[in-house]
Design goal:
It comes from Bifidobacterium castoris. By secondary structure, the chain is mainly beta. Among the domains are: about 80 residues, 2-Layer Sandwich (Alpha-Beta Plaits), CATH 3.30.70; about 90 residues, no CATH class. The protein contains 3 helices and 12 strands.
Length: about 250
């Protein structure tokens, strides 16, 4: 009989050829800089080539568990819990949104459009940025895209435009944007940027679904979970972790 936590190795699973550096570790947690294209946990065709299974294999520890998740397409700071006794404290911290998350993305350098639903509030008028985008986002199981609908707001994002980055592959001028989500709906940042007429560079879901081969690594979603800050639930220390994954410079 196999051990209860034995790895289900998939012999013919495709390789994701990107490293996953460890940014920090102690007895309770491991913080990694997840690359684009690597899922957080096993799903569909991906098992061994996921952040979780890479860590379990690297540390030979089946008890490692994610404290939160990042989409496969999104790179950046990702926290795992290695001490089972601390698992609840860290996962609850994320669930209760006691973590300050800052993302960066590359998107068109343009004046934001007026979305059909929800609100856009300029925070430093007459400047278009920073702004606050508020809307209702609904994600139907089995449907790739999330959508915005009329109704009670459940998604809020602060968006600031930073420096110009150059041009996308199609010649579009692009800039770096700093995104601070106040909620955590599925695809929230991608949906909000697209609704403003500023779809994130490399997005294969918004504004339209694009079919791509699993090994098409040339067009990553240029969205990075750049910074996480929180008060450690075990010792009260302030923790700040920063991703080193670059955005394109054009």
């Amino acid at each position: 009989m196999s051990a209860p936590h034995a790895h289900r190795w998939v012999v013919d699973e495709p390789d994701i050829p990107f490293a996953m550096p460890v940014l920090y570790e102690d007895a309770a947690i491991i913080v990694v800089d997840k690359p684009h294209f690597l899922a957080t946990m096993p799903r569909g065709m991906w098992y061994r080539q996921t952040a979780l299974m890479r860590l379990r294999e690297r540390y030979d520890d089946p008890r490692i568990t994610p404290a939160h998740r990042l989409d496969r397409a999104t790179a950046g700071v990702l926290v795992f819990v290695r001490d089972p006794a601390a698992r609840g404290a860290y996962q609850t911290m994320f669930q209760e949104r006691r973590v300050v998350k800052t993302y960066e993305c590359a998107a068109p350098l343009a004046i934001p459009a007026r979305p059909a639903t929800g609100t856009v509030s300029r925070l430093a008028p007459p400047r278009p940025f920073p702004l606050e985008r508020r809307s209702r986002i609904v994600k139907t199981r089995g449907v790739l895209q999330a959508r915005e609908t009329r109704g009670a707001v459940n998604a809020e994002t602060r968006i600031e435009r930073a420096q110009r980055l150059g041009h996308a592959a199609d010649g579009t001028p692009i800039a770096r944007y700093v995104l601070t989500p106040r909620t955590g709906k599925t695809h929230q940042l991608r949906v909000h940027m697209n609704a403003l007429g500023l779809p994130i560079v490399g997005d294969d879901l918004y504004p339209r679904v694009e079919e791509r081969a699993w090994d098409d690594f040339g067009r990553p979603l240029e969205l990075v979970a750049r910074r996480l800050e929180f008060t450690d639930p075990l010792n009260g220390q302030t923790r700040v972790f920063t991703s080193r994954v670059p955005l394109p410079q054009g």
